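Protein record
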Amino acid sequence: MSHPHPVRDARRRIQAEHASVIEGIDACADAVAEPWDTSRTTDREAVTDGLHRTFEETGLLETLPAVLADAVAATDYELRARPVPAPPSVVVTSRGPVLRATIDPGRLVIRFDVFDVVRDSDPDRRPAYRRSNGVRLTVSLE
């Protein structure tokens, strides 16, 4: 059975049933950014490694595949493979965690953005990473 609004249904399920996970992601991002001496860093690894480490320490990394499976269940589509707390299901990027699952209409992508990438007009300068205000949840079908 196909469902007409998989993106909307997945987003609603996450917001309704997984608010504690969103709060945990927010708290982990705060913990990563807290020791910085300015509001941003150009150290991409500090962001990605810091997020990955705090997600592991808090147990969130192991929880994210269940969030992905539940979001897919809300769409009435079937997962083609059991999600795991590693790529391709869960990827920790410099912006935050990304969850991905292939379903019949395409790839469901769920982003929890907690850092903004700030690019300089000078192409020789590395991008900076700035803590966002909260968590931006984006769900798309690609």
Q: What stands out?
A: The chain is about 40% helix and 25% strand. Strands lie at 40-41, 90-92, 97-103, 106-118, 128-141. The mean pLDDT is 93. The CA atoms of residues 30 and 129 lie 13 Å apart.
